[in-house]
Amino acid sequence: MKRPALLSLALSLFLAGGASGTTLTRHPSLWRVTTNSILIAWETDVPSPGKVLYGTTPALGSEAPDAATGTVHSVTLTGLDPATRYFYKVVAAAESLTAGDDTLHTAPPGAAPFRFVAFGDCGVADANQYAVAARVDSLNPDLGLILGDVIYEGGEAANFTPRYFTPYASIISRAVFYPVVGNHDIVTANGQPFLDAFYLPTNSKNGSEKFYSFDYGNAHFVAIDGNDKYNADMYDWVEEDLAATTKRWKIVYFHQPMYTEPSSHLSDLDLQFYLEPIFMGHGVDLVLQGHNHNYCRTYPIANGAAVDTAQGSSYRNPGGIIYVVAGGGGRGLYPFIGHDPVIRSAFSVFHTLAVDVVGDSLYVQAVLPNGTVFDSFSIVKDIPTAVEVASFAASSETQGIRIHWQASGSSAIQGFNLYRALSDTGATERLNQAGPIVGGPEYSFLDRAVEPGRTYYYKLAALETTGHETFVGSVQATAGGPVLLRVRKPKPNPFDRNAELSFSLPRASSVRLTISDVHGRKVRELVSMALGAGEHSARWDGKDDRGRRAATGIYFATLDAGGTIVRTRLALLR
Q1: Which domains does the chain have, with CATH numbers?
Q2: Rounded to two decimals, what is the model's pTM?
């Protein structure tokens, strides 16, 4: 159960009694997450030794000490499992400063779905900032981007706790946020309080935390210092960094907008001149900006002009970059003073962006504090491998679980990788250690290292010649159980009205076919009955159990036949 930010902070302060009387003055926050590490930072009122107790259950079991004794503490946990939830507790000497029910998640490997939020122009500690923060909290993001002007008026050190760490306390204790500097953030000592307060990546050309990059899932994020727009070294680094990544999605963010509806600030022509050729040359998909305290979204833009304007808001392989201003984080709103024809949507409202990255699809929603989605769009990028997996199934045999699939596609793939986990969201291990599984069009792999009666979760990834992986299927099976099932690829996929889901049963079974969203929430139950052996099919009309139209997005069809479960992915585009 989530706790409001102020209640969470108050609880931590209450728990901070004890012999030494150490008190939290800054609630724990998470930084620099990778698939196997994460940094936890906090501050206390008096110098004290600190440590973090952590583990995959509330019993914790492991600990990591702070190397220094002081009031500013940070601990990096290493050797963690990917895509795994950990519980943690912050301790000073022998007394607990937090309850031990805080959780963190390591980054997922490959193309596992994740959500991030993005907003800027926020640090005022007023009712509007808290309203946006509450909505961000409810969206339960995996990570967040703050698009500058984190602290008003001038990035003063004294304002970071009341205007950042307190309003977002319940969020940043479980999700990693990555702020970037705005023009207000550098007023005090050229942004030194910003650099002192945050623990950001240092992989830029000169080690500066004002611009940096990081990976999460199948996305690469680049933060740029828009205040320093004549820094040739920064632009060289940006180009080198974008050229080096092999991630499917490339997302860039900074404060001053390259493209915006005319408002208190206009489109920055200098940033267009320096950055647009770099972005276009290296396949950037989405650029997020602040500075104007409102929301606006462009059409896809290539070389300064709007393209693909006929695609509406559902873009497939757009020929340009979409730019979004999301400066409605809390500071007073700005009106619009004109219109730029490259702008698709514009609203002067408080808001946050919620972005779901799901394989080769990206879904963006602009959300009001009351939860209303007032603008949305999607980008779907065709898989370069064009690999088609017609079936993906598992069958229990005497010697283990046999995973088999049928695929055809481009010569751009070198083969397949097969991953196994002990739960649907648990850490995965690659089973084909000797190299990619090759052959085709029929493929087979026998997993011998299984325990009878235990359920295993398998994911199949197509491996491109570039080394990039695309996950193309998932299935689960119980060792020693009657698990044999075949599900065909939904037709059409993506779809806008109806999708046909065909499957075959080797024996009479009690069958349940359901549609769920990327967060595992059931949307529609299509079949719930006993069916005989043979071929069967069902149709989904894109509506939920109440007859309401489901939103554009990625969904999963899950077929449970006599205890054997197979899942396939389908995309609904409105």
Answers
A1: 5-105 (2.60.40.10), 119-380 (3.60.21.10), 388-572 (2.60.40.10)
A2: 0.68
